[in-house]
Amino acid sequence: MVISNKSEYALLALLELATCYPNGESLQIREIAVLQDIPNRYLEQLLATLRRQGLIKSIRGAKGGYVLARDPRTITVLDAFNCMEGSDVVVSSSEPTPSTIEGELIQEVWQEARQAANAVLQKYTLQDLCERRAIRKHKELMYYI
To answer: What is the CATH classification number for the domain harbouring 79?
Structure first.
């Protein structure tokens, strides 16, 4: 399973918004784009999708921008992934029925892999990612004499 650029960029943008959530600050598109090195035009499209799906809100005005619609502890990586890719990408019911025993076995294993991937993505929230990032940044700042 490979993460698409679309999903990765969306998660990076959500991570930046989650970082600002405790302060109630909004971020503008250009700020997020610079912080995460995401093309502005592409980010606009991603944020529009995230807004339509209810993960973020837009704020108008001079100090406007984007904020998370919910607490980062309640938004999972799976929520973001499903928002960008569609929930049927992870679990598809439109797959053809295999015509052989071997095909059935392969499909069962593939379904089990999808369920395991879903479980992992559901386990982590934006808050978890923020905390992990803070720990890694702290480790980078440490030096030894």
So the answer is: 1.10.10.10
Question: pLDDT of 75-87, one tens digit each?
Answer: 999 999 999 988 7
State the total domains in the chain: 1
- Check residue 139 and give its pLDDT: 82
Which residues of the chain have a pLDDT value below 50?
A: 89-92
Report how far residue 68's alpha carbon sits from residue 81's, in angstroms, rounded to the nearest whole number: 16
- For residue 118, the Cα-to-chain-centroid distance in whole angstroms is 13
The boundaries of the domain holding residue 55 are 5-141
pTM: 0.83
